[in-house]
Amino acid sequence: MKRKSINRNRIIRKTGLLSAVLFLSILTGCAGQYPAESETPAAALFEETEPSEGRIVVGFCETGSESDWRRAHAASIRSALSEEEGFYLLYEDAQQKLENQIKAVRRFILQDVDYIVFSPLVKDGWDVVLEEAKEAGIPVIVNDRQVDVSEDLYTCWIGSDAEKEGRDAGLWLADYLEKEGRDKEQINIVTIQGTLGASIQIGRKDGFAEVLSEHDNWTMLDMQTGDFTQTKGYEVMEDFLEKYDDIDVVVSENDNMTFGAIDAIHDAGKTCGPDGDIIILSFDAVHAALEQMQKGDINADFECNPMQGEKVKEIILALEAGREVEKKMYVEETYFDNTMDLEEILKTRMY
Ligand code: GZL
Prior knowledge:
The protein has helices at residues 8-27, 68-80, 98-110, 127-135, 162-179, 199-212, 230-243, 255-267, 287-294, 309-320, 342-348, and strands at 56-62, 87-93, 115-118, 140-144, 156-159, 187-193, 218-225, 249-252, 279-284, 300-303, 328-330, 335-337. The chain is α/β, with parallel strands linked by helices. The protein is elongated, with a radius of gyration of 23 Å.
């Protein structure tokens, strides 16, 4: 992959020139589609250090910092695409807003980076800006969640198998209920959903639904989004507890919503986990969740591996060397439950 050499002056000049055009277009009433310079002065696009020649310039946009998982993922990207590793990373946090992600990708195009990498908040709404990246000749690597666009608009995707995570949760529940002698009992389930429209949310829901459909005695009472945050997870669980007095299982699509749900269950005078009133199935398996499992509040947690930075780096280096990469790549994941030696497991966890 022929790489443009990074030149701060060239980028500032380009940005400055474009901003001048933009300024004129605003004056003449036909505002451009790029953020006005006041939003992102060129000099502010770079951190303090001077991008030295020969470094691979990567524009990376994260969804936000909504969860422990997200913070671990962002740390993994920053660590892998570091200056010591030969990269110049332009990092943007979209604060859970799609429009911020699209603006960030447009800024990366303006800055003429070598690679654009992003974790799409939701799978839709990416066609136009990815067409622009393609026209600009900038390779795009989609990371973590997926986008619903023509495959020629991105080089590759690497992330989690969300449907498998959801299916594994359903299969674990079926096995657990059988062991408990409850496989014929009426089982009432509620789901606290992640960000609606996110591929990871859709996949976990669909995967679990596959197993749900095989059990006539399982009923999905309700599903509401907690947007992957602890605060909203609490609010949704509080609402479920007010509406239903016979909840047997909570499926929570990430650990931070689970933390909120556990607090709401306790505040309602109920208990959860292996010895509790309500079975808790969660996703991510971050460190704090495994500790909560040790305390007896979570039955099982389906890992979603955020340590994806090294894989992204390997992909970029392969492209730099002119090698082909697979279109879709999955990170390895497993699950944990309270029957395991969590003390030992926690010693090995990197996040
Ligand atoms: C999963 C990732 C999700 C996590 C949440 O791939 O996109 O986003 O499950 C995070 O914790 O907010």
